[in-house]
Amino acid sequence: MTDPVIARLLQDRAGFVARLAELVACRSVSTDPAYAEGMAAARAWWCRRLAAMGFRDVGEIAAGGHPAVTARWHGAGPDAPTLLVYGHYDVQPPDPVEAWASPPFDLTARNGRLHARGVSDDKGPSLLALEAVGAYLAVEGQLPVNVTVLLEGEEEIGSRTLATMLQGNRDRFAADAALSADGARWRADLPTMTIGTRGNMATEITLRTAAKDLHSGRYGGVAPNALHAMARLLATLHDAEGNILVAGFGEGAALVTEADRAALAAIPYDVAAHDASIGIAPSGRSNAEFLERLWLRPTLDVNGLWGGYTGAGGKTVIPAEAHAKLSMRLVPGQVPAKVAAALAVHLRAHCPKGATLDIAPTRDGTVATLLEGDHPLLVAAEGALEATTGRTPLRVRMGATLPLTDIVQRVLGIGTVMFSFATADEDFHAPNENWRETAIEEGFAAWVALLRGLEGKSRADFAAFRRE
Amino acid sequence: MTDPVIARLLQDRAGFVARLAELVACRSVSTDPAYAEGMAAARAWWCRRLAAMGFRDVGEIAAGGHPAVTARWHGAGPDAPTLLVYGHYDVQPPDPVEAWASPPFDLTARNGRLHARGVSDDKGPSLLALEAVGAYLAVEGQLPVNVTVLLEGEEEIGSRTLATMLQGNRDRFAADAALSADGARWRADLPTMTIGTRGNMATEITLRTAAKDLHSGRYGGVAPNALHAMARLLATLHDAEGNILVAGFGEGAALVTEADRAALAAIPYDVAAHDASIGIAPSGRSNAEFLERLWLRPTLDVNGLWGGYTGAGGKTVIPAEAHAKLSMRLVPGQVPAKVAAALAVHLRAHCPKGATLDIAPTRDGTVATLLEGDHPLLVAAEGALEATTGRTPLRVRMGATLPLTDIVQRVLGIGTVMFSFATADEDFHAPNENWRETAIEEGFAAWVALLRGLEGKSRADFAAFRRE
Questions:
Q1: Reduced to 3 states, what is the DSSP secondary structure of residue B325?
Q2: What are the boundaries of the signal sequence (chains A, B) (predicted)?
Q3: pLDDT at A468
Q4: Structure-model confidence comparison of residues A127 and B217, the more confident one
Q5: Chain A nearest-CA residue for B285
Q6: Residue closest to B378 by CA, chosen among B186, B148, B197, B193
Q7: CA of A424 vs chain B CAs: smallest distance (Å)
Q8: Contact partners, residue B198, CB within 8 Å, separation at least 6
Q9: Residue A364, preceding bond cis, omega within 30 degrees?
Q10: Residue B215: enclosing H or E segment and its boundaries?
Q11: A317 Cα to chain B: minimum distance (Å)
Q12: Distance of CA B78 to CAs A252, B75, B145, B173, B459, Å?
């Protein structure tokens, strides 16, 4: 017999997609102030929807940055656990817009996938989660746990004010565990639970070689070129295989053991297919090497590089300035401030002759996280996945960063389970971001199964996992 | 007693500056199609002015690119020499506009200099030249030589169609020598004649490492980064001292001899002051080494470099594409096509693992030039400078390129004398381009003296210097 909550959700499937189209039409790009109107529109949309679902205390809350949307249903009583259900309404910039096959803010169905900026990261998955909770509440008249909703507006810019906002509202957000609708399933063909994330850190550097741009005919041969200097400097960061050459970069990082490598080798993965799917040259790496690089080793990437004349035609200029944006992914044990310091030492030591280096102050960064294997919410989530897919989920990690996991642990003393129905091949942060349509049915079933699995749980079950 | 032509010019000095302001207000940027209207406005302005001066056959002439403005006064008779007086009405892009202290297309006087894009390169110097010729014609009723005016619209984009245009109109442009109002005096404190130019060559390269931009959390560590590849590739082009490492790059180049070095050492030059004037780290180079690098050695500069996210804030992207614009300055003996081939071989050989390289087709390029020491127009020009400055001009070269010199030699079989009253420190091609106000009086005097010095010359005097 079909679960009546799932029946209700499936009956309204078209309504769900229509609401998702409204939500992605809100251009909520958090990194660029030009999109402020879209950010406000997304918040207003969510407030209306949460109120309609029966949530109380619906509103916005901020600590100097983009406000979060929050709401509560605390009708399960003081002995029931409280879950902080998390998602984010902000998205990455759509650039380069010309690379999109359909307009980035118009939800477009194509080849079994819905396309739009933010559809997979994280508007689809977060709407899916809360629609399931709302349907449960509508059908059953109550939820098995107390729920506090937190929809962040700064996930794509490193959750700048989330810690401050939670710190200033600890009572409002007090919970026994966090349940994230963000974070992405590793892949579509295998049920997995993600138990760890990499941290991150970002900075920007500028090199200057002259007081002004110079004409290459008048100064060519006698003036240094900032772009040459930048190329020389960036070329010192990695070897030809892409390994990081910054001394002290990995200080404190958990060593990768032979047991780790054996566990990775046991996870089936077609590396050649992966390489082909993103159009990169075949790496020839084994499963274990691939997963080790993706999950257990840090990275250092140049995300943007620019200087000189970049318009149409040519310009015979010797550029006086060059700029680069850099970001890093960190593994458990790495301390962001120490990583930033090691990078700064390297950059200063390798700054080419004739150039002066300016390193922008780094933000705090985010540490990597790893969840306990017997955490009751993790076990319940694994049970829900097993019940709806018929397969035991594999425990995996993710190469990406969820600042939430680190912040709620530090501020609220709780662990986070990621229960997302996005999948990692859906071009987050790139043109043509998309979301499998099948995730809708799978996600409805799993979220309802998880709520069913939490029936009868009490706060006491979570006591051992608090991290004061 | 003041020369009546000079008296007339000085009396109308304010009118000259007002006309120059009108001319620089025409936004004649040739490299970017967005400026087509400004290009047309500059041509229309020149046609009106040349007709008002008494030139005949005033009009535009084109060969598939931006039209040139041309005009003639051939009343000196068939035995008098014909001079092709050259300038250009196109200018460099004003970018970065925010670095200008006054709007780039508003002529602004400040600290004894006029500021605007193109004021020095080449609108001021070309207007100066033709106003002097026009005043001579008005006062004397005739000129000592036949004059054909050629104001090019593609000097800043490598004179793409100039050769074709001259080739198709050889009778119209037949002359005994070319006299250029472009080319820049080397410096303000010393009368000099520029007898040689460097050639040039430009290309653009693209590296691709994946089919699309990738999220650094999902792919960081397992996907190559196009910006890393570009940095590695560009870092192979020069050593730490800026010397070019491309094998075969200098093939055919005239060797720098000890005699060359001795001649350079005899030219006074304050290298430390030069370095300080453009805000570069002190090079510690001698006169001779400095001038050798600037005049007698080729260069290879990256003029623009870009890829990934370059907007506000950060974006955790692994860019799939990186782009660079490159240009070269060539010395006598280097063949542009061979230089381009050597560069392509180097780039392909050093293309990093995992990246594919695309090299845009190079245009033909321009060879370096060197004028005969006893050319009658050179000797007359030196005489005019000596008469007006009281000092014997030094023969120097320039590090920049004047495609004209190469093209009129190849197509019309004549040499070019550069007689410009721009000076090399006037920030051509950079923000805050400017032109010394004193160049106006100096230029008027010298151009009139040169015309006086050509009185009595015949075509026969130039016969030995034709280069069929």
A1: strand
A2: none
A3: 61
A4: A127
A5: A222
A6: B193
A7: 7
A8: A217, A220, B295, B298, B299, B329, B330, B331, B368, B397, B398, B399, B400, B401
A9: no
A10: strand B214-215
A11: 5
A12: 88, 9, 10, 14, 8
Per-residue pLDDT tens for A231-256?
Answer: 999 999 999 989 999 999 999 998 89
- And the tokens for B229? 């590849």
Q: What pLDDT score does A391 carry?
A: 93
Query: Which of A200, A303, A427 faces B309 most closely, judged by CB atoms?
Result: A303
Pick the residue from chain A with its C-alpha nearest to B428.
Answer: A215
pLDDT at residue A165 greater than cutoff 80: yes
Which ipTM did the prediction report? 0.76
Average pLDDT score over residue span A222-238: 97
Cβ separation B305–A231 shorter than 8 A: yes
- Confirm if B274 and A210 have CB atoms less than 8 A apart: no
DSSP-derived secondary structure for B128-151: HHHHHHHHHHHHHSS-SSEEEEEE
In angstroms, rounded to a whole number, what is the distance separating the alpha carbons of residues A49 and A366? Answer: 31
Instruction: Kindly state the tokens that stand for B257.
Output: 């001899």
At position A113, the amino acid (one-letter code) is: R
Q: In A340-401, at which residue ranges do the beta strands (DSSP E only) sit?
A: 356-359, 369-370, 394-397
Phi, psi of A98 (to 5 degrees): -70, -15
pLDDT tens, B372-397?
Answer: 889 999 999 999 999 999 999 988 99
pLDDT digits (tens, 9 = 90+) for B414-452: 999 999 999 988 998 899 999 999 999 999 999 999 999
Adjacency order of strands within the sheet including B369-370: B369-370, B192-197, B394-397
> Do the chains contact at A316 and B302, CB–CB below 8 Å?
no
- Residue B351 pLDDT grade (very low, low, confident, very high; cuts 50, 70, 90): very high
Question: What are the chain B neighbours of A427 within 8 Å (beta carbons)?
Answer: 212, 215
> Cα–Cα distance between A207 and A324 in angstroms, integer?
9
- Hey, are the CB atoms on A278 and B223 less than 8 Å from each other? yes
Which residues of A are less than 8 Å from B238 in CB distance?
228
Count CB neighbours of A94 within 10 A: 19
Q: Give the pLDDT mean for A310-314.
A: 88
Instruction: Compute the half-sphere exposure of residue A152: CA atoms within 13 Å on the CB side of its CA.
Output: 30
The partner residue sitting opposite A309, judged by closest CB among B303, B314, B431, is B303
- A430/B317 Cβ within 8 A: yes
Closest-CA residue to B454 (of B53, B127, B132, B71): B132
Among residues A408, A449, A404, A440, which one has the least CA distance to residue A120?
A: A440
* Residue B348 buriedness (CB in 10 A; 0-12 / 13-18 / 19+): exposed
Shortest Cα–Cα distance, A151 to chain B (Å): 20
Predicted local distance difference test score (pLDDT) of residue B364: 65
Compute the mean pLDDT over every residue in chain B, rounded to the nearest whole number.
Answer: 94
Helix (H, G, I), strand (E, B) or coil at A310: coil
Q: Do the Cβ atoms of B32 and A313 come within 8 Å?
A: yes
Burial level of A321, CB count in 10 A (0-12/13-18/19+)? buried
Q: How far apart are CA A223 and CA B449, in angstroms?
A: 36
All domains of chain B, ordered by start, with CATH? 4-197+368-465 (3.40.630.10), 199-253+298-359 (3.30.70.360)
Helix axes B226-234, A226-234, angle to 10 degrees: 120
Nearest in space to B162 (alpha carbons), one of B81, B243, B65, B283: B65
Range of A328-332, B190-194, B358-362 with top mean pLDDT: A328-332
**pLDDT tier, B409 (very low <50, low <70, confident <90, very high otherwise):** confident
Q: How far apart, in Å, are the Cα atoms of A286 and each of A84, A330, B220?
A: 38, 22, 16
- Strand segments, DSSP code E, in A409-451 are 416-418, 434-436
Place of tokens 């967005």: B34
Write down the pLDDT at residue A218.
87
Which tops the pLDDT comparison, A94 or A218?
A94
Amino acid B468: pLDDT: 62
- What pLDDT, on a 0 to 100 scale, did the predictor assign at position A1? 60
